[in-house]
Design brief:
Strand content: 15-25%
Helix content: 25-40%
GO molecular function, one term: peptide transmembrane transporter activity
Number of helices: 19
CATH architecture of the largest domain: Roll
Number of strands: 26
Family: Belongs to the bacterial solute-binding protein 5 family.
Pfam families: SBP_bac_5
Shape: globular
InterPro entries: SBP_5, SBP_5_dom
Number of domains: 3
Keywords: Signal, Transport
């Protein structure tokens, strides 16, 4: 039976029961028959009782009411404004909608950890490579915590496509990614809305080299050239998110977005070098080099290959302990299971899950050499080398189950994922100095870092200290730059202030592309959000071009797919409208009749008051 027929039949039965009308068919249940059943009249009456029970025990079909979870204006002004516009569009389509605002960490905890939401609006960290979608959408991760499939989305065909793009390289991979994106435009596990254009303010009189690296990456803070006698002593950043001053755990999902500061504290084997124009390339970092082993066909299985990684010599952690291949091997095992086999089921880290999944096995063959066995193509496996390397002597003890006196802790939660990790012990170009929560976090140059060696051609820390001052507002952050109290805004400026910024000879506005994207996420664990037809209809209620102009003041690009431009096939590229699911209306106003027609064609029904009705 179709959803539409089932919905109509159940609704009519419920209405007849409420009114006492038997529908004229002779099979209705009268109050007298119901009362008679209590004294055991006849076998026929017992049949009516069974029918009554069958009717009243059926799920009701009620008007749909949902809540949009998002951030307040002081957390992300664009998210709350976007949520309000989406709420208005849903209301126009007959869906009762409310908005719930939560702080940054509470928002991420409810969405990523507890999966406690209907739909949400916010930024997805995305990635420069489309393989981030494997972690974001594969059904294997639907019940895990973190950025791995927070939607609870499950689709075996999509799983196959996610896996296929991992297994090949070059043009074959590009074709596989196209097939994946085509499937996602149909399924709409989330609605990609736009990619923001990032703006930061910098002082050119204090430092040169701002255009050499993207300030959302570690290399944006390295290689800067001090322009005055005093500027080499301290790089003064102002950040509009207090979380880095509260928690420096690189694998924590609630306190990390891109994790730029964590990337300055922790090295990875490779680094994604992104310039101010968005061009990027994966380069060796802690690894001196890596070599793919063509292998012996008899020694390797059909779907495995090996990668030999050589570490740079004489590397150390900030506490003076040597960094060896054992620490690297430990890191990959630990990110796959932070309990290190100590719990009934693995407890994967809530970050980097998809990247380490590309590694089948890793073995340290000596202090500087590792052999990785991988089950993906080279492009995806190489990106697995970008995870932060953790010191085994610090993190081993954090594999124990987390415990908080008086509270029930979810199974699989280890100390590793809940510790604030202050002070952090990494091996990166900066080490921890001090912090005052919600005021600042200060990093100091790590003098023994390999980038400072004469034989290493990589950007290095050129300042004695990086002080990150916390200021929650774009307007006051700008004032700090203009007053020469800060050198850069390390987080992006809110779009509403951009037009009012006056550049000078000393102060300049940096514009750079983003691989993050704003989106509407559905909790597919709940009805009707698990229904792709419902998600398609909702996607057509968002006028992406209009919200870019009205909410983002034009400082964003509307998108139909969630990946970077070079991966978008021509048929899915934005060309003034969504090529697959165009907006049902114009200039931000929903065409109510068209919206109703779309929902009804998808199998949903409206009541007499114009409310969309769904089965709960």
């Amino acid at each position: 039976m179709s959803d539409s027929v089932a919905g109509r039949t159940t609704t009519e039965a419920a209405e007849r029961e409420a009114s006492g009308d038997d529908g004229g068919g002779g099979n209705g249940i009268s109050r007298r028959a119901a009362l008679a059943s209590t004294v055991g009249l006849t076998t026929a009456t017992s049949g009516c009782v069974r029918q009554l029970r069958s009717i009243v025990n059926r799920d009701d079909i009620d008007p749909l009411s949902l809540t949009i979870t998002t951030l307040p204006a002081d957390g992300d002004r664009e998210s709350i404004r976007l949520a309000r516009e989406i709420a208005a569009a849903l209301e126009a389509a007959g869906i009762d909608t409310s908005i719930e605002m939560r702080s940054n960490e509470e928002f991420l905890r409810s969405v990523l950890i507890n999966h406690d939401y209907d739909v949400y609006v916010g930024q997805h960290p995305g990635g420069t490579d489309p393989d981030f979608l494997y972690e974001a959408l594969h059904s294997l991760y639907a019940d895990e915590r973190g950025w791995q499939n927070p939607f609870g989305f499950t689709n075996l065909l999509v799983d196959d496509l996610l896996e296929s793009q991992r297994d090949v390289d070059g043009e074959q991979r590009r074709e596989a990614v196209t097939s994946l994106l085509e499937a996602l435009t149909v399924e709409q596990p989330f609605v990609p809305i736009c990619t923001p254009i990032e703006h930061r303010l910098v002082r050119d009189d204090r430092f040169d080299g701002w255009d050499d690296g993207h300030l959302a990456t570690r290399t944006g803070y390295l290689g800067l050239e001090p322009q005055t006698d005093g500027s080499g002593e301290q790089l003064r950043a102002v950040h509009m998110d207090a979380r880095p001053s509260q928690n420096l755990n690189p694998i924590n999902a609630e306190y990390r977005d891109r994790g730029t500061i964590a990337d300055l504290l922790y090295d990875s084997l490779a680094t994604d070098v992104v310039d101010i124009d968005g061009a990027h390339e994966l380069e060796p970092w802690l690894a001196e080099d890596w070599v793919w082993d063509e292998g012996d066909d008899e020694a390797e299985t059909e779907d495995q290959s090996s990668l030999t990684v050589e570490l740079r010599p004489d590397c150390r952690f900030h506490d003076g302990e040597p960094l060896t291949a054992d620490d690297v091997a430990f890191t990959y095992r630990f990110l796959a299971d932070t309990a290190l086999g100590g719990s009934a089921t693995p407890a994967p880290a809530p970050r980097y899950r998809g990247q380490v999944a590309a590694i089948d096995d890793v073995e340290a063959t000596d202090d500087r050499t590792l052999e990785f066995t991988v089950a993906t193509g080279e492009e995806v496996a190489a990106r697995a080398l970008t995870v932060p390397i953790l010191p085994e002597h610090v993190w081993t003890e954090r594999a124990a189950a987390a415990s908080v006196p008086g509270y029930r802790v979810a199974q699989g939660t280890t100390d590793a994922v809940v510790t604030d990790n202050v002070p952090p012990i990494g091996s990166g170009p900066f080490q921890f100095g001090d912090r005052t929560e919600r005021e600042h976090v200060t990093l100091e140059r790590f003098e023994d870092h390999f980038t400072s060696r004469d034989d290493v051609d990589l950007p290095e820390a050129t300042v004695e200290e990086l002080r990150v001052q916390i200021d929650p507002r774009s307007t006051s952050a700008i004032q700090l730059i203009e007053d020469d109290s800060a050198d850069l805004t390390s987080s992006t400026l809110e779009n509403y202030v951009i037009a009012d910024i006056e550049e000078t000879e000393d102060v300049r506005l940096l514009e750079s592309p983003s691989w993050t994207f704003y989106h509407l996420g559905f909790n597919a664990r709940k009805a009707p959000f698990g229904n792709p037809r419902f998600r398609q209809c909702v996607a057509q209620l968002i006028d992406k071009s209009w919200v870019v102009d009205e909410v983002f003041h034009g400082h964003a690009d509307p998108i139909a797919t969630p990946v970077a431009g070079e991966w978008v096939p021509e048929e899915l590229a934005w060309d003034g409208a969504d090529p697959e699911l165009p907006f049902l209306g114009s200039d931000g106003d929903v065409d109510v009749d068209a919206a109703r027609t779309a929902f009804e064609a998808a199998g949903f029904r409206y009541d007499g008051d114009g409310n969309l009705r769904v089965r709960h």
